[in-house]
């Protein structure tokens, strides 16, 4: 039944894309239409209204009003088919050049192109693989569109919707093609679900990590440095260092050792690994003034780690060999896909690789799964895993039989660790299947973060060996793992998950002292407290500014500081401290007083134990 509900919702959203196109055609009859597929939570349509006409969000009300008329009319969605040549003539007669281009491609290249363009909701193929003979259309009232379907029975059965935004989009994603306008909408089965989604979006806007990053002074971007190249302030660097240290600690418990590799390398390394053939367009090229070497900025670390493994002979007794490296990699991402810390050109990975025997795979994966579960338990995010398998395409290295074996091993490990999982084809790395960790944040959004990958291909390509018990050379298995993934991307998720209210262990500023005046005795006592806190490793600041105590307290609240201490005559005289505890950390409503040593010792212990609530 859940699958049926999801299919029905998909049909509703697809139908709303056509209804929006109907409304746009009525309002702007000269419109040329591209494609209008279903996307997560809604739909979009790419439209070309001509060089002198642009739609903005100011036009949404009249478009939605016209859509409401189409919906109220409750006309049926009627499917028909015609030969592809007749369809091309229809596109020409209707002055729809984008549809004509798609139809010509279908006619010329057959089902291969049809599969490639499936997301564009193209015509249904009703003949054999040799050629596309017939395509399907759907008509609702005065609007007809080339379309695979499915749709709901009639325009009145499409649930609740709202238009959200309009953005530029190159036709078929190629920047050399015409730029169209992509109009997005969201849609749900009921008005209540739509309201809940819009409320979530409003909350997400408040939590936007780009906004909080500026307000809390965590990271900056500069046009002089370049797009997608974030720089972290002292406060933001605390976040990076603390989460990276936690990831390293978890892996070092299981025998991982730190290594270091350079940030540039000869392209030969990636030609051997297979990355060059797959990703050469995403690499930054480096020119040497001294040699003829072709160099690149490293986009990943696994090939380097194979070179460290291969630097000396290995025995079966030496395995497993475990390396970890938290290091920055570089990828030439498209400018239009960059956004805050979500997608950057300089990404820091908490990368690690295991080289082991086949009989050691289960234990190594168990250790990594346990580490990931502990990490995401501490940061307070619900976790499930996606088993990412290959599909039937030729985009992967290695035999089908080997892939089947490795995929089964990963599935068994997930089941043995009692993890909630789902399976998805086409999401594997080119060299092996993956366990991708999916976390749900505080407002219900799901993100992919950590990953564990099993790899039989790179050891083969690099000729890695160890000597078995009988003295014969054997090929090790390689296991890739990143618990955080990209630290930048993880922080974008974590900042929004916490809304910037970080627990003590990771908070850039754990305690703030506020002086009630600028008298020497008060200022000196606050300075003594600050030094005591620093001596035991706390991150503390003192506000001695000439502002009112109320304004200083408000400033500490805006900075989301976990603990605030007002230092006045009572504190100077008695030495006991009464902390103001940030609301989400507090476990008691009544504030209590503590000795200086008790207070600072408790905070230090909270940080060490990485607790999410106050112990006071």
How many domains?
Answer: 3
- Coarse morphology: globular
Q: List segments where confidence is low: pLDDT < 50 over at least 5 consecutive residues.
A: 111-130
CATH topology value of the largest domain:
BirA Bifunctional Protein, domain 2
Main β-sheet description: 8 strands, mixed
How many runs of DSSP E, i.e. beta strands? Answer: 27
User: For the CA atoms, what is the radius of gyration?
Assistant: 29 Å
As a percent range, the share of strand residues is 15-25%
User: So, the CATH homologous superfamily of the largest domain?
Assistant: Bira Bifunctional Protein, Domain 2
- Tell me the helix content: 25-40%
Give the helix/strand class. alpha+beta
Q: Give me the number of helical elements.
A: 19
First and last CA, distance? 49 Å
Give the strand order, joined by hyphens, for the main sheet. Answer: 11-15-16-23-20-19-17-18
CATH architecture of the largest domain: 2-Layer Sandwich
Mean pLDDT: 91
Class of the largest domain, according to the CATH hierarchy?
Answer: Alpha Beta
Task: Walk me through this protein's architecture.
The protein folds into three domains: 200 residues, 2-Layer Sandwich (Threonyl-tRNA Synthetase, Chain A, domain 2); 287 residues, BirA Bifunctional Protein, domain 2, CATH 3.30.930; 99 residues, Anticodon-binding domain (Rossmann fold, 3-Layer(aba) Sandwich), CATH 3.40.50.800. Helix content is 37%, strand content 24%. The strands form seven sheets. An eight-stranded mixed β-sheet has the order 11-15-16-23-20-19-17-18. Strands 1, 2, 3, 7 and 8 form a five-stranded antiparallel β-sheet that branches. Helix 1 crosses helix 2, helix 8 runs antiparallel to helix 12 and helix 12 packs across helix 13. The longest helix has 26 residues.
């Amino acid at each position: 039944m859940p699958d049926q509900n999801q299919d029905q919702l998909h049909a509703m959203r697809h139908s709303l894309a056509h209804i929006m196109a109907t409304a746009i055609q009525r309002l702007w009859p000269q419109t040329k239409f591209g494609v209008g597929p279903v996307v997560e939570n809604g739909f979009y349509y790419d439209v070309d209204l001509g060089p002198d006409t642009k739609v903005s969000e100011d036009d949404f009300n009249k478009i939605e009003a016209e859509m409401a008329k189409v919906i109220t009319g409750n006309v049926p969605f009627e499917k028909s088919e015609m030969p592809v040549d007749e369809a091309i003539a229809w596109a020409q007669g209707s002055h729809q050049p984008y549809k004509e281009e798609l139809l010509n491609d279908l006619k010329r290249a057959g089902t291969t192109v049809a599969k490639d363009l499936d997301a564009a909701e193209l015509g249904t193929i009703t003949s054999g693989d040799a050629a596309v003979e017939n395509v399907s259309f759907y008509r609702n009232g005065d609007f007809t569109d080339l379309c695979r379907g499915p749709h709901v029975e009639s325009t009145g059965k499409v649930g609740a919707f709202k238009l959200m935004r309009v953005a530029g989009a190159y036709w078929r994603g190629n920047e050399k093609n015409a730029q169209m306008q992509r109009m997005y909408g969201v849609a749900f089965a009921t008005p209540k679900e739509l309201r809940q989604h819009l409320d979530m979006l409003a909350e997400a806007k408040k939590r936007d990590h780009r906004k909080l990053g500026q307000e809390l002074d965590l990271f900056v971007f500069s046009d002089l440095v370049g797009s997608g190249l974030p720089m972290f302030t002292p406060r933001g660097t605390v976040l990076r260092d603390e989460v990276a240290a936690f990831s390293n600690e978890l892996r070092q418990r299981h025998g991982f050792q730190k290594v270091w590799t350079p940030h540039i390398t000869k392209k030969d390394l990636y030609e051997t690994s297979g990355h060059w053939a797959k990703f050469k367009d995403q690499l930054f090229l480096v020119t040497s003034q001294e040699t003829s070497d072709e160099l690149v900025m490293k986009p990943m670390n696994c090939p380097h780690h194979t070179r460290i493994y291969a630097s000396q002979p290995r025995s079966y007794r030496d395995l497993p060999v475990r390396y970890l490296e938290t290091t920055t990699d570089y990828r030439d991402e498209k400018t239009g896909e960059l956004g805050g810390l979500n997608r950057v050109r300089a990404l820091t990975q908490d990368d690690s690789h295991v080289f082991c025997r086949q009989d050691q795979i289960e234990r190594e994966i168990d250790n990594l799964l346990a580490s990931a579960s502990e990490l995401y338990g501490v940061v307070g995010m619900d976790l499930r895993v996606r088993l990412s398998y290959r599909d039937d395409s030729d985009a992967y290295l290695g035999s089908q039989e080997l892939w089947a074996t490795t995929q089964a091993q990963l599935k068994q490990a997930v089941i043995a660790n009692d993890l909630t999982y789902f399976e998805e084809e086409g999401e594997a790395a080119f060299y092996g299947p993956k366990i991708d960790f999916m976390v749900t944040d505080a407002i219900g959004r799901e993100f992919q973060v950590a990953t564990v990958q099993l790899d039989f291909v790179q050891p083969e390509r690099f000729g890695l060996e160890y000597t078995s018990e009988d003295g014969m050379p054997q090929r090790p298995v390689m296991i890739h793992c990143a618990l955080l993934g990209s630290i930048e991307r993880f922080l974008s998720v974590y900042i929004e998950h916490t809304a910037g209210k970080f627990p003590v262990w990771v908070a850039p500023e754990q305690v703030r002292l506020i002086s009630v005046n600028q008298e020497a005795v008060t200022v000196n006592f606050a300075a003594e407290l600050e030094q005591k806190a620093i001596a035991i490793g706390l991150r503390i600041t003192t506000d001695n500014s000439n502002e009112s105590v109320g304004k200083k307290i408000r400033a500490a609240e805006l900075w989301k500081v976990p603990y605030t201490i007002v230092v006045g005559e009572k504190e100077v005289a008695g030495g006991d401290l009464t902390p103001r505890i940030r609301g989400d950390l507090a476990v008691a409503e009544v504030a209590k007083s503590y000795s200086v040593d008790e207070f600072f010792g408790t905070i230090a212990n909270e940080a060490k134990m990485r607790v999410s609530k106050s112990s006071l």
